[in-house]
Write a structure and sequence with these properties.
CATH class: Mainly Beta
Helix content: 10-25%
Distance between the termini: 55 Å
CATH superfamily: Calycin beta-barrel core domain
Order of helices and strands: HEEEEEEEE
Shape: globular
Strand order of the largest sheet: 1-2-3-4-5-6-7-8
Radius of gyration: 19 Å
Structural class: mainly beta
Number of domains: 1
Length: about 120
């Protein structure tokens, strides 16, 4: 019983020492890949991001988006030349954790906190 009590005393200490790595500034610029599935079919989205622009390459087409950083780990992306009303809606992206060459993020339309989705982007250059 005494050993169990000692163990239970130290568990919160070990858990509190764990922190998620977030080196978001490493991913502000560069070339990236994002894998996603639509209707059971896998797709790859490649994009290049500068401090203020993002060039997205989807199915042989290039979309240009503005990028506005809120802080080191959050930004808003908006299409510069929207072709529909849904394209006019900005997307809020929050980097949740990073590794050496990738970051996990959540995203949703600005103002839609109920429909957040997650993804992982891999830095390829």
């Amino acid at each position: 019983m005494k050993k169990l009590l000692i163990l239970l005393t130290f568990i919160p200490l070990f858990i509190s020492c764990y922190s998620v790595q977030r080196e978001c500034s490493d991913f502000k610029t560069g070339e990236f890949e994002f894998h996603y599935t639509v209707n059971g079919e896998e797709h790859v989205n490649k994009f290049t991001r500068t401090d203020s622009l993002e060039f997205e390459y989807v199915e042989g087409k290039v979309d240009t988006n503005s990028v506005k950083w809120i802080n080191d780990c959050e930004f808003v992306v908006r299409k510069l030349n929207p072709k529909s009303n849904s394209d006019k809606k900005a997307v809020h992206i929050k980097i949740l954790k990073t590794s050496e060459d990738a970051y996990t993020f959540e995203y949703s339309l600005v103002g839609d906190s109920k429909n957040k989705q997650k993804g992982t982007a891999i830095k390829i250059n």
